[in-house]
Protein: Nucleoside diphosphate kinase
Amino acid sequence: ISPVVRASQGPSERSYVMIKPDGVQRGLVGEIISRFEKKGFTLIGLKLYTCSSELAKEHYKDLSSKPFFPKLVEYITSGPVVCLALKGPGVVASARKLIGATNPLQAEPGTIRGDLGIETGRNVVHGSDSPENGEREIALWFKEDEVCEWEPSMMPWLRE
Ligand code: UDP
Ligand code: MG
Structure:
């Protein structure tokens, strides 16, 4: 890829997206990953992982005072999740749009939760809510050498 094309891609951003245990158990992994791939974001981290309650609590620490927190931690640790790190301009907000509203009953059709989610406590997928949290969560869920920075060869066909 030419340096000119590389320079034109502008500032990039990273998001942590996670297919929650219900999404894995229901066989929705391929369907969900493909939505982010098709949208042109670069997959720079991917693994199946069963997390400790310590990690789940740290990930959701801002919600620790909420009444649903213990059940949320139980849910996230109840089976393997699929951890994704995604990169691209505007990926944080765009991934949240693709994911849809927290309550799947209110999520728009066409979004992952709108199409596949059942209820708030079984809403299939997580996405970082800010670029800062994207970085924080990628560092939390991935070891440094598990994140693979690469440049898709079709980038000139994705972005001008
Ligand atoms: N959650 C829940 N009950 C609630 C609100 C949230 O079980 O009343 C869970 C749900 O799995 C949600 C997660 O906690 O995805 C994090 O909540 P947040 O408000 O950050 O929603 P999100 O950013 O995932 O849309
Ligand atoms: Mg959130």
The chain is about 40% helix and 15% strand. Residues 10-143 form a domain with the Alpha-Beta Plaits fold (CATH 3.30.70.141).
